[in-house]
Recover the amino acids of this structure.
């Protein structure tokens, strides 16, 4: 599909530090062939006797170094509901904290699902690290099913993380995302939340979350008519 | 006779909370109990999904066992986790008095669940404290006044008072009359100039817990639309 429509698709890859040298070579080949700019990582995945891994593991750092070197700058990390290991929180996002500081100038970490159900713990990290983003997958459909809680949670994310570091996601392609986008566009922050928290979601903010932030992450050219209006000149 | 005992058992079960949501497992519809004439209790746990975290399922099952066993007149307790991916393991280990790590020998890192339990106790403490202190502030008290307040002068009729004091007690924080109300989870008082930032953070924790409760409640209602059929021993 990418070959047929090279301008319509951006390919992301994935890696697992337990693949060692072979995985690093594979990443290099993919970058050369597809111009990969991002990866999706699943730190909680079991393999053999290994019960997952952390971004701070020395093997993982070799991969992060390689990403920085090759310009694979968008590191999407799955931090959301998982099952194993049984006694642990696989959504623990504290490893993101360490590597975000370390790679502050070279990589961005997009925490998919915002660490759900521990969104609060994710926020404590994101508020301190300018290169940490929140991906709204799973959270997004709350706009339909639980609009009040969607408003509460989103207002907190806007407070702690901000509208420049949140990205829309529709989750798996079971359906067209159109209804979700339309619901979000129509969504209004309730007055009491605006007043109490001093937070609003403007049309500008929605446009950033729906696409402009992602366009920035992937250096996509945004057509002039879709860009935000330049700041109005100060009145003379 | 048995129905009276059933009511007391349900009351005991009502003190058991989902660790992540800090709400009663009875209120959430996750647990229900039946008692026979011989004083044997059966507790059934039905969670929102087949894949709900095994560690939380174990904690709720073990807490339910302990709470019901302490009810006078109860001779034995059986806890049954149903419709769950580790239903058999959790049921067998909780009824057999085995720990979580013993129930899943190769699937944990062997450090038990106490750290996890405390982690969520602290969250619950923050969430309940935020509601109480925000209430005091919204009724006109200043930050300085709230931070100077002692447990003894809390209004016992305020519906937020008791839930907050319960969570303090769990963390080992003194509830003596002269103990300060606005404290960190380690019992140290919060400085008035830090109160606003502290509560902004606590609010996030509360919102998160409530949102999760809403999600889990919705899933549970979808999975078990009616709860009327009786548990039989």
């Amino acid at each position: 599909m990418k070959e047929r429509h090279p301008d319509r698709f951006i390919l992301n890859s994935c890696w697992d530090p337990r693949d060692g040298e072979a995985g690093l070579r594979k990443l290099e080949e993919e970058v050369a062939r597809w111009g990969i700019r991002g990866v999706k990582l699943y730190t909680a995945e079991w393999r053999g006797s290994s019960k997952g891994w952390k971004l701070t593991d020395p093997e993982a750092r070799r991969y992060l170094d390689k990403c920085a070197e090759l310009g694979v700058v968008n590191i999407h990390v799955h931090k959301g509901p998982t099952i194993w290991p049984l006694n642990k929180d696989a959504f623990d996002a504290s490893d993101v904290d360490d590597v975000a500081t370390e790679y502050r100038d070279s990589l961005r970490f997009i925490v998919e699902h915002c660490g759900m159900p521990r969104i609060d713990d994710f926020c404590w990290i994101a508020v301190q690290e300018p290169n940490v983003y929140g991906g709204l997958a799973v959270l997004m459909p709350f706009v339909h099913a639980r609009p009040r809680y969607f408003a509460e949670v989103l207002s907190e994310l806007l407070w702690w993380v901000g509208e420049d570091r949140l990205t829309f996601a529709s989750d798996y392609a079971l359906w067209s995302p159109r209804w979700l986008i339309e619901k979000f566009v129509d969504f209004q922050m309730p007055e009491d939340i605006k007043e109490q928290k001093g937070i609003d979601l403007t049309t500008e903010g929605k446009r950033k979350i729906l696409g402009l932030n992602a366009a920035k992450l992937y250096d996509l050219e945004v057509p002039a008519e879709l860009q935000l209006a330049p700041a109005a000149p100060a009145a003379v | 006779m048995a129905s009276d005992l059933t009511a007391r058992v349900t009351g005991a079960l009502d003190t058991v909370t989902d660790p992540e949501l800090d709400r009663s497992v009875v209120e959430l519809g996750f647990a229900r109990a039946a008692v026979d004439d011989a004083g044997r209790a059966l507790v059934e746990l039905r969670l929102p999904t087949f894949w709900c975290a095994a560690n939380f399922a174990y904690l709720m099952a073990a807490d339910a066992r302990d709470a019901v066993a302490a009810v006078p007149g109860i001779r034995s307790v059986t806890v049954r986790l149903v419709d769950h991916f580790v239903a058999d393991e959790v049921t067998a280990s909780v009824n057999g008095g085995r720990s979580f790590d013993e129930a899943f020998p190769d699937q944990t890192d062997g450090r038990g669940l106490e750290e996890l339990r405390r982690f969520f106790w602290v969250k619950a403490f923050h969430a309940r404290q935020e509601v109480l202190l925000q209430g005091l502030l919204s009724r006109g008290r200043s930050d300085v006044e709230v931070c100077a307040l002692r447990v003894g002068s809390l209004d016992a009729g305020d519906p937020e008072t008791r839930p907050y004091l319960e969570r303090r007690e769990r963390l080992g924080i003194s509830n003596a009359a002269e103990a300060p109300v606005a404290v960190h989870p380690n019992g140290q008082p919060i400085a008035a100039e830090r109160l606003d930032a502290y509560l902004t953070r606590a609010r996030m924790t509360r919102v998160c817990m409530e949102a999760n409760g809403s999600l889990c409640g919705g899933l549970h209602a979808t999975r078990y639309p009616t709860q009327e059929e009786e548990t039989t021993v």
In short: Strands of chain B lie at 17-18, 23-24, 31-35, 40-46, 76-82. Residues 60 and 120 of chain B are 13 Å apart (CA to CA).
